[in-house]
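Just curious. Invent one:
>
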Amino acid sequence: MKVQKGLIPNSHQLIWMVLDGDYLPVEPIQKYLNYLDSLQRSHNTIAAYAHNLKLYWEFLEDNRQDWREITLETLSYFIHWLRNPNRGVISIEPQISKRSEKTINHCLTTVSAFYEFHERLGTFAGVETYRYQLQPGRKYKSFLHHISKGKEVKTRLLKVKEPKTFPGCLSAEQVNTLVEACSNLRDKFLIRLLYESGLRIGEALGLRHEDMVTGNNNEIKVVPRVDNINFVRAKGGVERIVHVNKELMQWYSAYLIDEYPDDLDCDFVFVVTKAPGKGEIGNPLSYQTVNSLFRRLSKKTGIEVNPHLLRHTHATELIRAGWDMSYVQKRLGHADIQTTVNTYVHLSNEDLMNEYNKYLEQRELVE
């Protein structure tokens, strides 16, 4: 089996398919992927779901199981199948899981959503993969928390415990090192933009010149668009404004004046400025090009970096500066404030020490 990417003829619409051993689309999976596409889910999301369902279909084939005749116990075996690095081999030595807990949970989420879809269609009788329970304790409690705290919420029955890890964040000096390691103004501006604004990489690559507002109000409009020819998407589907500083807009102006191709019939901010074939100049940057850039920067500087780490760094700096969590949520474009809390609130020993020193200073003033 394989996951295949393709383009619909005479359009810029990207499609994903899961092909069986005869190179034919797996119909139940294809129906679900088409459904996700009709909901305008991002191409990265659909691609991830396609790969997860490919794994699930391989599990079903290994166990000679019909996809419509599964039980909760079958899905629990799927967890063991994902973890086992050598299928069909029994070892007396401790085995290291082939996939992380986060990857396993993502696969389970995909499979559960796939079955929910087919249950609504009537092609599947159903299996209980969820239960309803009172809301678990949350770090952040909204103003109206007392109204909904007794309300039952839907939770998944099958979920493995994920270890909490801190992806880290960059220092201002490391960001400057990355900027200096770039060979052109476009890449320097991209690094500064991700760091100063906290935009997702898909949001940055989808920016148009009309979204960049300079002058008295230096701000960037994040506009969800589904017709980007480089197949990037602004996650969440909600338009928002991100305020930035004057220095970042000066980087933008310098890039436009010194490097942006002349007489270009393209309104994307980030485009190819140099290429072996002249026909490529002016094309919007793709995810692949940016991933290649960050791999080169990591190798050149010795700093392991990816676009999301710059977003994480920006959010962490705002929280350490004392921003209210609701403001951070709106700036980052999160639909749920709990996502902001769970993802970006990380207290290091240095944070605790600084806060304790502030406490001591305040206590001395009172005494």
User: Anything to note?
Assistant: Residues 101-121 form the longest helix (21 residues). The first strand starts at residue 2 and ends at 7. The two ends are 72 Å apart (CA to CA). The chain has 14 helices and seven strands.
